[in-house]
Amino acid sequence: MQRYFLNRLIDDKIILTSDQDIFKHFGKVMRARIGSKAEFVDSNQSVFVGEVDSVSNDIISIKVVSKINTNSELPIEVTIVVSPLKNDRSDWLIQKATELGVNHIIMADMKRTVVDWHKQLAKKQARFEKIAKSAAEQSHRLMIPSIEFVNWQTVCNMKKDTGIVAWEESAKAGEKLAFVTQITDQDLKHLVLVFGPEGGLTTEELEILESNGYIAAGLGPRILRAETAPLYALSAISTLCELS
Q: CATH number of 3-68: 3.40.50.11740, 3.50.50.60, 1.20.1540.10, 2.40.240.20?
């Protein structure tokens, strides 16, 4: 069943108008008719099943028929910090990270960042948010991840319970347990994960992060692309926290 996000509370009636993206997708793409059903998530992250009871060219009227008690979110709040990537790789990363349960996506300048994200920032932000919203609906999330563009100093000073920086040199040195040890900490509520750009983080950047409380950790013996490493980490978090 299709899921949609509404930025308001839901009572017993949902009215969609022709100027809304939901109307265009549910009414035009999905061809909603009387009796058609969909799931709707309100601003309190409550999920309701709605059934269409009338349709016109301008309005779709939907009655709420049931509430769904479900939780599809990761048990810990996860923020990933990445460098903007070339071509459409950032789009792909945002889509897949959303499907895997990330809460916040931070785009930051790093020493080896090759993309000038300052150009057309508003356009990029709008596109990324649209991708995240669509992915959150497809994967039946209860929330849409936030997306921000920040400077390096903001990353260093971010509030967190635990901060991990993916550092391939740790794996090369044989380190195996840092990531698992931090993720399985029972007191962990908010985790910040930092990943380098295509050329990796510099030693200086690592040292700055470590001085601000981040822990260097390897992600296994293989070298992962900049867009693959965050997805590997999110998958591992799900395995450790939800499937074990």
A: 2.40.240.20
pLDDT attached to residue 118 = 87
Q: What does pLDDT average to over the chain?
A: 95
124-163, pLDDT tens digit by residue? 999 999 999 999 999 999 999 999 999 999 999 999 999 9
Q: pLDDT per residue over 170-207, tens digit each?
A: 867 777 899 999 999 989 999 999 999 999 999 999 99
Q: What is the 3-state secondary structure (H, E, C) of the chain?
A: CCEEECCCCCCCEEEEECCCHHHHHHHHHCCCCCCCEEEEECCCCCEEEEEEEEECCCEEEEEEEEEECCCCCCCCEEEEEECCCCCCHHHHHHHHHHHCCCCEEEEECCCCCCCCCCCCHHHHHHHHHHHHHHHHHHCCCCCCCEEEEECHHHHHCCCCCEEEEECHHHHHCCCCCHHHHHHCCCCCCEEEEECCCCCCCCHHHHHHHHHCCEEEECCCCCCCCCCCHHHHHHHHHHHHHHCC
Domain 77-242, CATH: 3.40.1280.10
The model's confidence at residue 244, banded by pLDDT at 50, 70 and 90, is confident
